[in-house]
Write a structure and sequence with these properties.
Layout lengths: L12 E10 L1 E6 L3 E3 L2 E3 L2 E8 L2 E4 L2 E3 L1 E5 L7 E9 L7 E8 L1 E7 L2 E9 H12 L6 H24 L7 E4 L2 E4 L11 E2 L16 H9 L3 E5 L2 E2 L4 E2 L5 E2 L17 E2 L13 H9 L11 H7 L12 E7 H12 L6 E9 L5 E8 L3 E5 L1 H7 L10 E5 L10 E7 L7 E2 H9 L4 H8 L4 E4 L2
Helix pairs in contact: 1-2, 1-3, 2-3, 2-8, 2-9, 5-8
Length: about 450
C-alpha cells in the first residue's frame, strides 16, 4: 500500500487515515484536483455511505481518489474531524491537509485517507504533537524518532501477515494491548493511537521546517534495524519497558531507565512497596517540572487543560467507580471491594490489576486496558496506588482515591523530559541517547 517514492522527492509516500467509517464526509478542495483524469475545481463537496459504497456526484463507487499534480502545494479541508478520540480532550475541528485525498467504502462507513510525502507528514506531526515554537534540539529529536517509528511500522507491515495476537482471555482474566496493527487499509491513523497528525491545521514554523530538513532521512537504529521509537507525554520519572505495554518481544533500547542523569540507583518498582513509595513521592527527574515556558513547547492548547501530570489524584465514589467499570468493560462486578495490583512494570505502571467486586472477580491488563476501564476517557497512566475510603455496614468502601504518576505509557522518549533536556542545553543526539540507549543515527535517504 505504501509507495516507494513521491513524485519529485525520494522520501516515501504514506497513506494516513484521517476520518474512519463515517456515514458522510463534507470536504473542500482548496486547489484543483483530478478525479479519474478529469479536472475538479476548488469548491465544497460531500460523499455519503450508501449500500456499502460511496455516493458522490450521483454515482456509487467502492473508492475514489482526488489526485494531486503537486503533493507539496495542493490542499483540501475535511470538516468535523475528531481529534483526541476517546481521550479527555476529544473534540471536532475542520482540518486542512496537503497532498492527495482518497475515500474508501468500508462496512461501517467511509474512510478518508491523506496521501502525503513522509517529510511533509513529519512537519505536521512535529507541530501537532508539540508546539511549533519548541526548541530546535527538541524538534530535531522528535523529527528523528517520528520518522523512525513510521518507517519501522511500514517495515513491520511487510513482515506481519495473518492474525496478530493482541489479547489473552479466560473466564478470570482479560489481557489486551493496543497497537496499530488493525490499520490494514492505510499505513497510520492521524490520532494519538499512532502519531498525532493534523495536517497543515497546526501552523508550522521555519524552526519546524529546519528541524525536519536538517534531519532529513535520519533515523535511530539498533544494529541493522530501524528503531520502533515510542514516546509519551510524561514517564513520571522512570521509563517503562516495551513488552510490558505491547507484544512480548524485547526491545533492548526500550527498557526501564531513570529520567535523570545522577548516579542514584534505579528503584525496583516491580516490588509493590517500592512502587507505592515512589508514586506517593515526587523525586527529581527531567520531566518533573512546572516551567510554563517549557510546557508550552510540548503541550498544545488542549493538552494544557491537563495541569497535573507528574503526580496526579483521581477520586471516585463507590457508585461512580462501579458504574464506570461496568460501562467501560461491559462486565458487572457489582460493588467494588478492592483494586489490587498483581504485577507492575519498571516504571511502576500496573500490568495486571485484579478487580474484586461483590458479583465478580477478574484480572485485567495491560496498561491501556486498565486506563480505559478506570476512566470515562483514559486514566493518565496505570502507575497508581489505591486508597479505599470509609466502609459501609457491609464492609464495602464508599470511596476510592487513585494517586498516580506520569501521563501515557511511559515507553521511550518522554516529551516533557526531552523538552527540559533541550532547555538545559543537551543536543538532540544526547537526548536520543538518553531515551534510546545503545542506538545510533543512520541516514536512510
Amino acid at each position: 500500500m505504501s509507495e516507494t517514492k513521491s513524485n519529485n522527492m525520494n522520501d516515501p509516500l504514506i497513506h494516513v487515515g484521517i476520518m474512519l467509517e463515517q456515514a458522510e464526509i463534507s470536504f473542500s478542495l482548496l486547489t484543483p484536483y483530478k478525479l479519474k483524469g478529469k479536472n475538479f475545481p476548488p469548491g465544497n463537496y460531500r460523499v455519503e455511505h450508501s449500500e456499502g459504497r460511496i455516493l458522490f456526484n450521483g454515482e456509487k463507487q467502492e473508492e475514489i481518489t482526488f489526485a494531486s499534480d503537486d503533493l507539496h502545494s495542493d490542499s483540501f479541508e475535511l470538516k468535523d474531524v475528531i481529534i483526541g478520540l476517546h481521550f479527555h480532550w476529544e473534540r471536532r475541528e475542520n482540518q486542512r491537509f496537503q497532498g492527495g485525498l482518497k475515500f474508501i467504502a468500508e462496512k461501517g462507513g467511509i474512510t478518508a485517507i491523506n496521501i502525503v510525502s513522509l517529510e511533509d507528514y513529519l512537519r505536521s506531526v512535529i507541530s501537532s504533537e508539540m508546539s511549533a515554537t519548541s526548541s530546535g534540539e527538541l524538534l530535531k529529536a522528535h523529527a528523528v524518532i517520528s520518522r523512525s517509528w513510521l518507517l519501522a511500522q511500514l517495515q513491520k507491515n511487510k513482515e506481519i501477515a495473518g492474525d496478530y495476537q493482541t489479547s489473552f482471555e479466560s473466564p478470570t482474566e482479560i489481557v489486551r494491548w493496543y497497537d496499530r496493527e488493525d490499520h490494514s487499509l492505510f499505513d497510520v491513523c492521524a490520532d494519538d493511537h499512532c502519531q498525532r497528525y493534523q495536517g497543515i491545521t497546526r501552523q508550522s514554523t521555519p524552526l519546524v521546517s529546519a528541524a525536519v530538513d536538517q534531519t532529513r532521512g535520519r533515523v535511530i537504529a539498533y544494529g541493522d534495524s530501524i528503531c520502533d521509537a515510542r514516546f509519551s507525554k510524561c514517564c513520571g520519572g522512570i521509563m517503562e519497558t516495551f513488552e510490558n505495554v505491547w507484544e512480548p518481544i524485547p526491545h533492548p533500547y526500550l527498557q526501564g531507565k531513570a529520567d535523570y542523569t545522577d548516579d542514584a540507583p534505579l528503584p525496583d518498582l516491580t516490588v509493590e512497596e517500592h512502587a507505592e513509595e515512589w508514586i506517593r513521592s515526587a523525586p527529581p527527574a527531567f520531566c518533573h517540572t512546572q516551567d510554563a515556558a517549557v510546557l508550552r513547547q510540548v503541550l498544545n492548547d488542549y493538552d494544557r487543560e491537563t495541569a497535573d501530570f507528574y503526580r496526579w489524584t483521581v477520586v471516585y465514589s463507590q457508585e461512580q467507580l462501579s458504574g464506570l467499570i461496568r460501562e467501560r468493560s461491559g462486565i458487572d462486578y457489582g460493588e467494588i471491594i478492592a483494586l489490587e495490583p498483581l504485577e507492575r512494570g519498571t516504571s511502576g505502571r500496573i500490568i495486571r490489576l485484579k478487580i474484586i467486586g461483590t458479583e465478580r472477580v477478574m484480572t485485567i491488563g495491560k496498561e491501556l486496558e486498565i486506563r480505559r476501564t478506570l476512566s470515562p476517557s483514559h486514566l493518565y497512566s496505570s502507575a497508581f496506588v489505591v486508597d479505599a475510603g470509609e466502609e459501609n455496614e457491609e464492609g464495602i468502601p464508599q470511596q476510592f482515591t487513585l494517586t498516580g504518576a506520569g501521563w501515557g505509557h511511559g515507553v521511550g522518549l518522554c516529551q516533557i523530559g526531552a523538552a527540559m533536556m533541550a532547555e538545559k542545553g543537551y543536543r538532540f543526539e544526547e537526548i536520543l541517547q538518553h531515551y534510546f540507549p545503545g542506538t545510533q543515527t543512520d541516514k536512510k535517504y
